[in-house]
Q: What sequence folds into this?
């Protein structure tokens, strides 16, 4: 996955960064360290964005970037669950070597992750397309551009704030 | 049963929020659309994640096997634990169940940790086996329940419940061939020949017929020879008092937590208590460990359970001097009891007390698990000279005890006690 991201980023001087941080993920999986995995994936995603920050905004690039993002996130969640399960399986004493509940959990969790991430990817593509083809995409003066950027950032901040607030209310029910 | 606990956000939730914020900051700094796309994607994940929040109607009931299930297990024996979880609320996608075990208890089959999906009004059951290498009273549980979503963004810890008390009893050995007979018997019936006329099965002497003697007791041959009615007199079978004294001095303990002289002593004491009580002797117990624990001699199954319970809760220590043991033996316990010391003979004051009691005309037996044998089992790197020295020192002590009239059983704890004990008792009878 990291190699694929690097191939996609060959136009940049820093094309090797996704591969470098991808190594962290492989190391984390072998060491069964969830913290290292989190750091590796976050660094990979941010490095992917950084390496491609000069990319021209068109539909192909947009879908590629979103695709890579969700593939990274999907691998992250799946490997996280695998590491967690392996911790339980290490304590398992069985001749068969596996427990039905854990096998079905692995299957169910992969379906759950892919299902939710597909919906999230769809939402992200729609939101990005709306952003691209909205007045934001029209050439404006640098001053207006900055103002629009600030307004857009504030909007995103508000959305994040409201989501967190909504979740907090949910948790206290 | 109600369910407590708050929904907690996992670390990935924080990372996703961080990604969203970082996207805005870097997007503004570098003036790049791609970071904003990252923010949009992160927000999309958060929006979708709302659907994986724990169900509002979480109602779970937990049961632990049958209520009458035995909560006692012998050392290295296995106990099967069953857990049943009933979901009386909405469907739970991923429920983590963890039955917490104390450090020394091991899972011998299956697992005590599961993640399951339970539909509404459905039941999830699992069982696993545990075993424990040491004696003692343990608390198994509580059963921890946690809802978690597939994306690891949210979790809700439910109220932990259902602890059980587990008693790990010492391992007892079947010692049918062993017959330990105290030199002094008391007046109540038992299996030990008392060298006096009384109730028994072994012929002892002939005596004059007394009115009331049973016809089956009349010796017809002797009656014909002496032309006078003669009756068989039998050797009375009686029982005595036996006191088991366990050396629980920590400074003299050799071996690991799982395999040591103390464990061997406790197992031997449990086996001896069983064989002595089945021979209808009254058995007393003194354990000199972290506290001086004693049981007045008595008989019966209930008393056996009391002894086992005392041995189970036994903790090694050594704050108590031997004066306490001597005081109990001399002032509280019946006189002329047989005293069986179970000790690795690594603490000199314990050996000195034994010699002292031998000199006071007590009927003393010493069963000593050899600490060197345990050490040899645990390590291959031991000095040959040190082994010889230890062996010579131990042999000298054992000889000294023999000389003072004690019956000494030098026992290799890797082997069963019965053959060694039987051999020594046979030698003593000669």
A:
């Amino acid at each position: 996955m990291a190699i694929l991201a690097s191939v996609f980023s060959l136009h940049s001087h820093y094309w090797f960064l996704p591969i470098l941080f991808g190594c962290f993920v492989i190391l984390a999986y072998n060491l069964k360290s969830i913290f290292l995995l989190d750091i590796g994936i976050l660094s990979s995603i941010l490095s992917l964005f950084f390496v491609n920050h000069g990319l021209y905004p068109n539909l192909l690039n947009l879908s590629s970037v979103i695709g890579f993002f969700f593939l990274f996130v999907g691998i992250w969640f799946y490997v996280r669950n695998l590491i967690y399960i392996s911790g339980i399986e290490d304590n398992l004493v069985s001749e068969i070597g596996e427990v039905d509940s854990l096998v079905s959990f692995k299957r169910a969790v992969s379906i759950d992750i892919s299902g939710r991430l597909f919906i999230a990817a769809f939402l992200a593509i729609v939101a990005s397309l709306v952003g691209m083809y909205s007045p934001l995409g029209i050439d404006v003066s640098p001053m207006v551009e900055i103002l629009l950027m600030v307004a857009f950032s504030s909007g995103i901040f508000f959305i994040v704030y409201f989501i967190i607030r909504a979740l907090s209310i949910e948790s206290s029910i | 049963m109600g369910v407590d606990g708050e929904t907690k956000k996992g670390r990935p939730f924080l990372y996703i929020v961080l990604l969203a914020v970082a996207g805005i900051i870097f997007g503004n700094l570098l003036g790049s659309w791609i970071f904003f796309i990252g923010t949009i994607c992160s927000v999309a994940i958060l929006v979708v994640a709302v659907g994986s929040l724990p169900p509002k109607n979480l109602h779970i009931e937990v049961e632990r096997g049958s209520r009458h299930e035995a909560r006692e297990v012998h050392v290295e024996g296995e106990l099967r634990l069953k857990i049943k979880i009933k979901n009386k609320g909405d469907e739970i996608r991923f429920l983590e169940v963890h039955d917490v075990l104390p450090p020394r208890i091991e899972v011998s089959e299956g697992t005590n940790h599961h993640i399951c999906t339970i539909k509404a009004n459905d039941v999830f059951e699992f069982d696993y086996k545990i075993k424990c290498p040491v004696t003692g009273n343990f608390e198994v549980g509580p059963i921890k329940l946690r809802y978690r979503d597939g994306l690891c963004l949210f979790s809700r810890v439910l109220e932990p419940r259902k602890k059980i008390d587990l008693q790990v009893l010492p391992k007892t050995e079947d010692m049918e061939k062993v017959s330990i007979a105290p030199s002094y018997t008391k007046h109540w019936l038992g299996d030990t020949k008392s060298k006096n006329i009384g109730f028994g099965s072994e012929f002892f002497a002939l005596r004059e017929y007394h009115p009331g003697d049973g016809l089956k007791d009349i010796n017809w041959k002797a009656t014909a020879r002496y032309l006078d009615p003669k009756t068989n007199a039998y050797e009375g079978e009686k029982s005595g008092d036996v006191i088991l004294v366990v050396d629980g001095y920590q400074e003299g303990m050799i071996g690991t937590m799982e395999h040591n002289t103390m464990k061997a002593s406790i197992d031997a004491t449990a086996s001896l208590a069983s064989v002595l009580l089945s021979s209808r002797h009254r058995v007393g117990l003194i354990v000199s460990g972290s506290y001086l624990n004693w049981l007045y001699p008595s008989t019966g199954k209930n008393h056996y359970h009391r002894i086992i319970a005392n041995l189970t809760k036994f903790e090694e220590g050594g704050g108590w001097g031997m004066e306490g043991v001597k005081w109990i033996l001399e002032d509280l316990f019946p006189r002329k009891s047989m005293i069986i010391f179970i000790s690795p003979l690594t603490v000199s004051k314990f050996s000195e007390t034994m010699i002292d009691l031998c000199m006071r005309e007590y009927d003393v037996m010493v069963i000593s698990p050899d600490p060197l044998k345990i050490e040899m089992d645990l390590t291959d790197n031991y000095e040959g000279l040190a082994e010889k020295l230890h062996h010579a020192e131990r042999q000298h002590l054992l000889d000294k005890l023999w000389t003072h009239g004690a019956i000494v059983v030098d026992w290799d704890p890797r082997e069963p006690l019965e053959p060694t004990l039987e051999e020594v008792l046979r030698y003593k009878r000669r």
In short: DSSP finds ten helices and 21 strands in chain B. Chain B has three domains: 1-39+51-168, 189-238, 241-429.
